[in-house]
Structures are given as C-alpha cells and as structure tokens.
Task: inverse folding
C-alpha cells in the first residue's frame, strides 16, 4: 500500500529550529517531486516548498524563503523540511505530497496525514 507519513512537528519558540520528515512506503519516492504544504486555522491551504525529482531543484513560497530548507534522501525514501527560523505565522498543520513534477499547476496525488507545528513563546 502507498503511504506518506509526516513527523517531527511540535512546539517550538520563534527563532528556534525544527525538522519535519516525510517517509514514504509502498513506492519509491525518488521518482516523484515532493511538495510541502500547510493549513492554518482560518486560512486556505498553502504550498510551502517543492523538491524536484529531475534535477534536485527546490522551490519555496516567498513567505518562507530564506527560513526553511527542503531536501530529500532517496536512499532513506524520505523528504525533509528544515525550519531554521520559524515564526508564529508558521503555525499550521504541515503535509507532504507527491507529484510528477514541481509545478503550481500540477496535481499532487498522494498525501500524508499531516503533523502539527506550533510556533509560540
């Protein structure tokens, strides 16, 4: 069975650090682009980052550029989102998902259940 599982969320202080993981099972993750998304209360879902499969390029939303780093370890079938300077507005449930490529117009067909990130002092 195909499954994505996010982990690593929790409570972090502003300016701290946190690393989210996305582990794939039932398929080989290196054939897919990996997107990170988030959903905060009262807000629409938002694309945060996308890690390409073809050339390793990583893309970021303007809201997190310079503060988050997306990466992947194909040998471990895992993707990561490093939050090295989270702020309160980053509080949300974070999801990973797969797609054929990194594109704002492409559909992400497989989603994890999400992990809660709370940024507060």
Result:
């Amino acid at each position: 069975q195909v499954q994505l599982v996010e982990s690593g969320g929790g409570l972090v202080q502003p300016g701290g650090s946190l690393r989210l993981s996305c582990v794939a099972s039932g398929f080989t993750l290196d054939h897919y682009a990996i997107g990170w998304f988030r959903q905060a209360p009262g807000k629409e879902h938002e694309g945060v980052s996308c890690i390409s499969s073809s050339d390793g390029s990583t893309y970021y939303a303007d809201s997190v550029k310079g503060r988050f780093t997306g990466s992947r370890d194909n040998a471990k079938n895992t993707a990561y989102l490093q939050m090295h300077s989270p702020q309160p507005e980053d509080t949300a449930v974070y999801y990973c998902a797969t797609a054929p490529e990194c594109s704002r117009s492409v559909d992400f067909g497989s989603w994890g259940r999400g992990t809660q990130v709370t940024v507060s002092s």
Notes: The mean pLDDT is 94. The CA atoms of residues 28 and 65 lie 28 Å apart. DSSP finds no helices and eleven strands in the chain.
